[in-house]
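Escalation from tier 1.

The customer reports that the assembly of two entities below gives different structure tokens on two consecutive runs. Tier 1 could not reproduce it. I'm attaching the input and our single run for tier 2 to review.
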Amino acid sequence: MLKISPEMEQYGNGLMDGLNRAIALAKEARARGLDPSMEVEIPIASDLADRVEVLVGIKGVAARIRELESQMSREEAALKIGDDFVAKMFGEKNNNEILDHSIRTAMALLTEGVVSAPTEGIAKVGLGKNDDGSQYLMIYYAGPIRSAGGTAQALSVLVGDYVRAKLGIGRYRPRPVEVERYIEEIRQYNTIMSLQYLPSEAEIRLIVENCPVCIDGEATEKEEVSGHRNLERVETNAVRGGMALVLAEGIAGKARKLKSKVEKMNMAGWDWLDKLIAGAGKPSADDESHAPGVKPLDKYLRDLIGGRPVFSYPMRKGGFRLRYGRSRNTGFATAGFNPATLHILGGFLAVGTQMKLERPGKACGVVPVDTIEGPTVRLTGGEVIRVDDEKTALAVASKVERILDVGEILIAYGEFLENNHPLVPAGYCEEWWLLEVPPGTKPPQDESEALVQAKKGAYLYPAYTWFWDDISVDQIRLLADAVSGTGAIEEETLVFPLDSTAKEALELLLIPHKVNGGMIRIKTFRAFIAGLGLDGNLKKCETWKTAPADAQPLALVMHLSGLLLRSRSGLRIGGRMGRPGKSKPRKMSPPPHGLFPLGESGGARRSFQEASIHTEESDAHATEIDFEKEGGIIEIEVGRRRCPGCGEITYLNRCQKCGTHTTPINTCPKCGHEVPGERCPNCDVPATCSQRITLNVKAEYAQAMERLGIKKESIALVKGVKGVISREKTVEAMEKGILRAQQDIYVFKDGTTRFDMIDLPLTHIRPDEVRVPVEKMRELGYVQDINGYDLQNGKQVIELHAQDILLSDSCADYMIKVTQFIDDELTRLYGLPTFYNVKTRDDLVGHLVIGLAPHTSAGVLARIVGFTRANVGYAHPFFHAAKRRNCFYGETKIEIFDGRSWATFPIRKFVMENFDVSRPGLDRLGTYYSDPVRPYYTRTVDTNGGMHLRRITSVSIHRSPASMIRFVTARNRELTVTPDHAMVVWDTGYLRKIKALEIKAGDAVPILEGGVVIADRIVTAETVASLEDRVYCLTVAEDHTLVANGVFTGQCDGDEDCIMLLMDGLLNFSRSFLPQNRGGTMDAPLVLTSRIDPAEIDKESLNVDVGKSYPKELYEAGLVYAKAKDVEPLIDRVERRLGTPRQLEGFFFTHDTSDISAGPLESTYTQLKTMAEKLEAELDLAEKIRAVDADDVAERVLNTHFIRDLMGNLSAFSKQKFRCTKCNTSYRRMPLAGKCTKFKGKGICNGNIIPTVHEGSVKKYLEVSRAMVKKYKVSEYCRQRVEVLDLAIESTFGEEKQEQLGLADFM
Amino acid sequence: MLDAQEIAIRFLDTRLQVHPDVVRYIQEQDNPDLIERIIAGVPADTVVVSAKHIPGMNATRDGMRFLTDPTVEIVSGGPGTSGSINSSADYLHYFRDRYSKLGGMIRNRCSSMPIEGLTRSPRYRQEECTVIGMVSEVKTTTNGHRIAEIEDSTANLSVLFRKDRPVFADAERLIPDEVIGVKGKLSTDGRLFFAEQMFRPDIRIDNKPYLSDKPGKAVFISDVHVGSNTFLEDSWLRFVDWIGESGASYLLIAGDLVDGIGVFPGQDQELTIKNIYEQYDAFGEMISGIPHRIKIIVAPGNHDVVRGAEPQPVIPEQFTRKFPENCMLVENPALVNLQGVRVLMYHGRSIDDMIGLIPGASYEQSGKMMEEMLQRRHLAPAYGRRTPIAAGKSDHLIIDPLPEILHTGHVHITGLTQYRGVLGINAGTWQSQTAFQKQMNVNPTPAQAVMVDLQTLVPETFTFL
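Tier 1 run:
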């Protein structure tokens, strides 16, 4: 049960009231019968326990799960329920059943219960006999276990172990030959299917020898092992894919996660996981948890892409300085940066841009936080300043000569916990200082006061602590000598002659200073000279005489000054730019205004205008009489419906004669009889619900305009669709399209209008920054600020409710138009009063929307409470976590054409060339997308079944939903996609897109065979558990389809989460626009979650820390690299509040920020258009930043981008395929005829055959690579690689005639 | 059409076993009387009937062989013969050249007609005829038959090889882009050709190798991989000591002289010499230790600095500055004449492709792959896979004229084979098992050299581990 405070109850009720009010009006409108159904078609979700019970089919489980979940976490519940099975509470008869039921139930629970596959991923469980006579448990995994994700796979073993121990069954003791069999078999499986993570031999050995449960499996592959065959205790010689997956991707791949669960549940016999994490068999492995301290990690720098700059090398001086804390807009995989940092770093980082990090996670979203320190820069002329505000940053940006330090990065403790990363030392900062001085001590007013405090024994206040540990002892001596020898104090400023070595040391110390007249001038010099061991007269103190010879710099400074100091630098963190964010209306392609079919007659734009002047194409038999045919008569395929009132057959949702709502009727395509169900009982064929009608679209359009009272001339273009896609071929009222066209908004395939936004978390707002008046805020229920004071002015900070969101300005403008459309619709079409009455942006505040992740089935109710200038979707982390995302399963094979040749990759591999997801489990926020490294193409199919080559515009990674759908076709193609994935199916001659979950056995899908599109039938469509954390997708230009595993399917229709107006969803959404589903709540295309329960959403949100401050212990734990878990009890996180009303409110943050929309709003990366410009900007910035090695950046870009491209293209050139210019048929090699030999209807195509890889595409990066090896100090190896490639290219294409050009010519 | 099994049974009836070559020959002749004539002529103590028992069949060489002075001559594949690709039209020339040359070899054995001639008119349906085509696609039907799409310059044709016919065994080894002849009947609707017999441009059954009339020995090695951390330097030194004493006059190296740079990702981790120039210098110094009287013939491989696309040009001058005088550079492939004995040197990259395409093939039996090349008379039949091809006006990878010795490498496993008078040598490596091979479970046979007596063509393998 959701425990909440009365205030939250009230808030929730307020949302429900709004929802109910909207539903009431929508019902009234729907009752007019103009829509496919008289009802509002958005159902409400059921809870997890119910889903599990249905899934595993064990009565009574749901009640027990609810009971357990109220007491413990889900993982614990998954284990604990095993106790009930052991006690035979659900009628189990024997041990086998107990094991079977408990493992499956736990799996269902762990995979969120939305899937039907925990049942299929485990073929059976069995008991074997050890050589000592004891019994052991065998779990037979089957192929579908893949869809459960590594973590759930691994946990299923844990569950098995738990129950096994309870039942008194022994551990598995493998025979040596069995261990070897595992090693051979997993390797072999890897060559067949390529595992995401292939454990080393030692790792496999460690797992098999120690895992208490025997991970067994069914034969999933045709191939057999060659070595260890015919083993007594292994049933098959064939490769067991399920076993390999669980062992490799589950246990080995998720060892860290598994270990944290083992610890949480106090399970014995899993200590070997430590060894596994430490890296079995690799004693010198880069292990962070054992030896204190961390090593630089350069993983984030691998696969460096041209144009995405590096901001800091791993743990390099001058890199990002860690500051622990959470601001209002960080946590949940975002990190805070001073807006000045964002500007100084070339504007590549805008609000919402993704950044790849060295640690603790792999990536983070970028948000502005102005209460942390900005970068320190040297300006032309030598002045060094720290830039802490946006205004200064913009003013000095053009004068920056060198970026000495990129500033602080604000990372919440929860991020370390989430990623199971050890804590690391933070730079000394005010909040830490405050924890160490006696309570009540105030921060010093000036330097002198700080020194007085320090002399009393406190640590020196951070603002006056310089970066002593960044310089050497020699430099300290040198500075002391220089200052004491030649320095003087003039007008409260330390002045000494400019000297390059001293200047360098000062720059490392990051002490602000000026240079003029050949003199260095330091204003804040007192702590500085104290640190150098000089007294007020710049004379060396006595302490110099006792200075230890071998002291570390910081220790020496402490000795010299007699003050306590802490390191200001702490641990530096490396980072580079990831992908930029974006935010825009969701559009289909071509974008329609209404879902009204116009067939071919609508022209390329599918417009009513075009259709109205359409005349039947005159064919060879045309007679004179046909000549004067009237325009606008078109033939379209629509649903067949009958009016229950007067019996009229129509396609309209409301009978034109009597105004009654019509119902669809099914007809058997074979015998022509009307049938009640979906199949003809006599002919046993699926019944259809369609008819071809001839329609005078011109007249109908004119009538609709008249009904709406709109002048014909006022709308230039109204676009419909080519055909309707649902089984019932339901048509949307023409009027809706007209009204949308009037507002210039577009409809999505389900009848709604959506706007895509990238997710960023936000827990608190200021009325002023979201540009909403205080009175309005009070109306919305925000009557108190965060400190409990009455909300009076716009500067006060208020806590954002979990379901309140901000709209970006562009989104708000679009949504205003949508409200106007809906009001028009209500008044002019339904004859009801208006609902929104929105004129300005402010009027939008308080209205409800539905938030959706791409391709999800669950929408979340939200309320608009303000706006942001940034192009992002700021909302409560719970709101983001409540949405889920989807796409293709990673093993899906796609064919990619890179300009020269075709290659088949698993989609995961292809997408990963843009993203480093080699450390799974860290990419938390869900979808990441990027443009592909270079132009790639893939085959697409258009709505007529024509094949095209289209460009891939982006690749994306999404968080996997709990369930996926797997299809098998008659020709044995297999495809696993997310339930909401767009698929294409044949619909009498053309293709339409439908959601995967709506596909049924027997549907015809286009597949690619032998280079042509042919139809194939779906044999099975089953829901399987999602076995990976992620799913992948491509965005393909124009047709938005692609070939996956040989099957043409739709692609992801958007990368970001989106929102739609609540009323839009209620009024205009209809399931019957989408292909029919198999029933049940989980299959519903849209389930609305009206209230967020933190216990039921994505686990990451539980690690958001919500305290006002951190304890001293956190900072101290950081100094010794303690595990994040060690201080967990001291830190206020959402997880600790679960089950109490405080789980939803009373959140705080440690660092405020004055404006959540500060900093650049659009990344330089997206503003620069060509790769040359981006590369120039990237290298330019690299040369400026102290923490970046420009030569290395150049080398990395060469290695991971340009050389790879050159090599790939050259090799592809000599293996290239050919294609026909006329019909686009692809040939594996040049046909001997030299012409296209494809048979096309009447004869042979005879088109010209051209190569698919051209000299130009091979040489694309050759010149720029040559120029780069000249300009930058790249390694000899790299230089020679370019040279050798150059030679090979020349030998392939012959000598070049062009003259040499400089790097500048390409940049 | 005679059935292979039937033929074998006829021989077995007379207590004779029969060599598959003979069976094939009888099938090709399609003359049942021939069996009786062979049986009649077989000497009494014969157990296996082989080609020499066929009446009128005398192993012969066609033509004379002119001996040159000096004794080594590069017949084809000398420096500068592989050109660059000028235009896409080269691809058309390239495959047409392959078709006409290989097709010509088949045409000697059966009379064929153009595919278009067969399919255009209904006249030939149900009538036995022969067509020659290049395979464009092979697949197995759901019922287990094989269908090959073949084409000539006029048209294409689907050919069905039924699994219950003797021809099926041949069809199982069909690979894309080889040229075959098929005899059979067109279906009634003219869309499918039912094959009964298949011809490859195979070596004639009566082929007899040329033997040198003067004494001479040649040593064959490959895949030295200098610069790799798995290069076996000690073994190499032992080899150099041995070759001086061995009496050999020729050393042939079939590519991968050095490990190269950037050949595979992360290669720099496995190199002891990371500089490509220094790698060749080291190689040059290594072969300088070999007595100067021994001629060293060196071809490039896929690890070498030249382009990957075959034919690969000779290693450029700037890398060979430390190579001794007695070293001759050839392209990959190259045909070299040693005292009249012809050696076809080919690095062997296509073996990777063939192992993947031919059922039952494995790296351990590298000799078998050379037989497959000889049967197809092509070094790299399958286009567009792992072997990059630089299409020129003519196909340099065709095996014509027939060599006495086919010398390959690449797979790092020594393999020897005798096929219809041609000696196949896959020459192993001088590199121990690499990390990649370990992962792929490839067990190389390092540090072996094969010596062949040019007067007898008898190979002998020496190991220097």
